[in-house]
């Protein structure tokens, strides 16, 4: 903070200018205000999403469930029988027709993907499910063991 002091030989103490120069203080406060106004919206911008809690829900295995397995080499299996990924769409459509409109909502496809499998191979299975109109698609995982860390 600055203070203007005028000293002359003729003046006494009443003539001293003892006011504080607040211009530098105001300048610093304005700069800080601008910095806060710019940075706060960047920090606060977050899309409000309710994240799920991680827990294991055991799946009910039914005879109508279709299990698609993808091994680490990208080979695809329909209920343990090898199948080409290009044939999946037609097989899903045939399965939906076989079940009829009443039971189509109960059809589930469970995808078992090897942890070393390429995402592209599993993505082809998911895409075939979506194109055929499969109502429920699930990924089967190994149960998490809390002692393994």
Brief synopsis:
This protein is an alpha/beta fold and 149 residues long. The protein has three helices and seven strands.
Descriptive report:
It is a single chain. This protein has three helices and seven strands; from the N terminus they run ββαβββαβαβ. It is an alpha/beta fold. It has two domains: 2-44; 66-139, Nucleotidyltransferase, domain 5 (2-Layer Sandwich). β4 and β5 form a beta hairpin. It is rod-shaped and about 105 Å long. The two termini are 58 Å apart. The mean pLDDT is 78.
Largest sheet: 5 strands, mixed
Please bin the fraction of helical residues.
Answer: 25-40%
Which topology of the largest domain does CATH recognise? Nucleotidyltransferase, domain 5
| Structural class by SSE content | alpha/beta
What is the arithmetic mean of pLDDT?
78
The helix count comes to 3
End-to-end Cα distance: 58 Å
Strand element count: 7
How do the strands of the widest beta sheet line up side by side? 5-4-3-6-7
Domain unit count: 2
